[in-house]
Design goal:
This protein has five helices and 17 strands. By secondary structure, it is an alpha+beta fold. A seven-stranded antiparallel β-sheet has the order 11-17-16-15-14-13-12, covered by helices on one side. A six-stranded antiparallel β-sheet has the order 1-10-9-4-3-2, with no helix packed on it. Strands 5-6-7-8 form a four-stranded antiparallel β-sheet, with no helix packed on it. It starts with 8 loop residues before the first helix and ends in a 7-residue tail after the last helix.
Length: 338
């Protein structure tokens, strides 16, 4: 099947999360990425595959089909496709040998961080964005990893990343949790450009309850790193003695699937110094915080992130988000921007 030109070339060459690994079982599942309809399925060896959710015969959704003897079978006419995407059986013509033009359209897929990641086209040689977004805490055995989400949000992926980098909203959107109105000042911090985005260091915020185990309000130190156009990581360390767990530290990764220019699916991966609490308790804290963010995110106009520096006003407290906008402009991101 001829591969059509993919719009949003910069974005199509990135790895994006589309499903939790544990959600993909023996039956195919539908997903969407950059407006492209996908079908994900596992072969007889349990390996994941990601294809265009469109049978090359009459355009039926392959996600309506089933996996039969390690092949994906279309629900419409029973055509069967091997894991390579090649059509290997046409029931109406048992002796017919389907040519390459009868193949399904195949995309690259990987499993990492408890998620299935899809890339719609290969990157340009030498591109900065050739691998999955980094998450340094993943290999730290002192930290437990838990995924949260997905959350579906009616806004663009860049708006969500920018909100993740923003500390000035803590005392208002997360009042009583990550901030307080009477302590809304954001001390100066440093921002440096990196090949995958930016690194903001020496970020500080006064927080009544910075984490699940907080025992008192504390000054909390943050570092933020943008690791891909639609991905970021924060690391936060509260003051000594302010948590019930000695030496508490945590890293939180934000990963976004840009479904449409103004509609996104969001996951968080927690890496925390807590091996005792059940998953749902750790997830509940993150759920509380993000569901406070969601109505504000969905209220922003425009939902696409303006990249022109005069499109919205800025202050010194916004320099991480301003650097993020410059980065998106530099690498040519247009999906979810204006």
């Amino acid at each position: 099947m001829t591969k059509p030109h993919l719009p949003f070339a910069a974005e199509a060459a990135l790895w994006h999360p589309v499903l939790l690994s544990c959600d993909l079982g023996p039956q195919p599942l539908a997903a969407q990425l950059l407006t492209q309809a996908l079908v994900l399925w596992r072969d007889a060896q349990g390996l994941a595959h990601a294809w265009a959710d469109q049978c090359p015969h009459r355009g039926a959704r392959l996600s309506l089909g089933r996996v039969c003897e390690g092949r994906l079978e279309c629900a419409y006419h029973g055509w069967q496709f091997a894991d390579s995407g090649a059509c290997v059986r046409v029931p109406a013509l048992p002796t017919f040998a389907p040519p390459q033009s009868h193949s399904a359209r195949v995309f690259a897929v990987r499993e990492a961080y408890g998620l299935l990641w899809v890339r719609l086209q290969a990157p340009t040689p030498g591109s900065d964005q050739q691998d999955l977004p980094a998450f340094a805490a993943e290999t730290d055995g002192r930290l437990r990893k838990v995924n949260c989400g997905p959350y579906e949000v009616a806004t663009s992926a860049p708006r969500i990343v920018e909100n993740f980098l923003d500390m000035a909203h803590f005392g208002f959107v997360h009042e009583g949790w990550l901030g307080a109105r009477e302590a809304a000042e954001i001390p100066d911090y440093q921002v440096a450009a990196t090949p995958t985005g930016l690194l903001a260091t020496n970020c500080r915020a006064w927080q009544p309850q910075s984490n699940l185990h907080s025992t008192q309000a504390a000054q909390v130190e943050y570092d933020y790193e943008v690791t891909a156009p639609y991905a970021a990581v924060l690391t936060k360390i509260p003051e000594d003695g302010s948590t019930a767990v000695a030496g508490w530290r945590e890293s939180i990764a934000l990963w976004i699937c840009p479904i449409a220019p103004e509609f996104s699916r969001v996951w968080f991966r927690l890496a925390v110094a807590d091996f005792e609490s059940p998953d749902d308790k750790l997830q509940a804290f993150q759920h509380t915080i993000f569901t406070q963010d969601r109505p504000v995110l969905e209220s922003q106009t425009p939902r696409s992130l303006p990249l022109g520096m005069k499109a919205e006003v800025h202050t010194a407290a916004d320099k991480a988000s301003s650097a993020y906008r410059r980065y998106l402009s530099r690498v040519g991101i247009t999906f979810g921007t204006c």
